[in-house]
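Regression check, protoporphyrin IX containing FE case 252:
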Amino acid sequence: MTVEYIRYRIPGDTAAFEQAYTRAARFLTRAPQCVDYELSRCTDEPGTYILRITWTSADDHIKGFRGGDLFPGFLAEIRPYVSAIEEMRHYEPTAVTGTGASIPSMYEWAGGTEALERLTARFYELVVADELIGPLFAHMDPGHPRHVAMWLAEVFGGPSRYTDERGGYPAMLGHHLGKGITEPQRRRWVNLLLDAADEVSLPDDPEFRAAFMGYIEWGTRLALANSQPGATPPRRAPVPHWGWGVAPPYQG
Ligand code: HEM
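Current build output:
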């Protein structure tokens, strides 16, 4: 991945510049080498703009996009502004990246550790009483519901206690290896978790439940795949971090 920054100083009609880029952007939208792009206007210095384009790689940009069919149409739209370019360079992203706290994490939205522990306590009551999956959990550690709450907390943006105290992803993976979970068992696990979520009044707004279900579907399908005989999952990986996806929480 490489990020291209192009800084413009437009001396005249900025509306025409923005319109030209609106047309040029249609070519970026169609380019498989383009991850995303954004044109920003400077609020302190009218006429100064920065275009950020993330490319799959510098080579893909130079050889793929510039050497490809879309470039002539793109260039035709922005050619009048080439002389207004003050900087045009590729930058490599560093490890310093993240998000702020303007959007609450799913962990906070759910109600934190207390809410997740309420969820898993009720869930495993339903699980052990269930004729299809109860037998799988016949010998489970009494701390199991709290440990799964810890895992979910970490996945949804809360404290990293499963990693710090319980061995993180490799330990969680180890609990599922060789279990031979079947699809009906996976589906029952999901159904019971959703029943428990309703019973303990986990937030039921569309955004939270959609994102929550997204993780549960992903996680249970991986648990099933990794539990099969001969499965070769990665032995080491970080605990996944699940976010809101395309529908962030509705805050009124
Ligand atoms: C999102 C999906 C899942 C998550 C987050 C999850 C989470 C976990 C965690 C964190 C543990 C280890 C608990 C500890 O550290 O004590 C565990 C163990 C286990 N899980 Fe899952 N799991 C998932 C799906 C499933 C499914 C679908 C099944 C079977 C239907 C299953 C069956 C088990 C079993 C049998 C154990 C070991 C229980 C024991 O201690 O005897 N898991 N799971």
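Comparison notes: The two ends are 36 Å apart (CA to CA). The pocket of protoporphyrin IX containing FE is lined by residues 133, 136-137, 139-141, 144, 147-148, 151, 166, 172, 175-176, 179, 181, 185-186, 189, 216, 219-220, 223 (CB under 6 Å). No diff flagged against the previous build.
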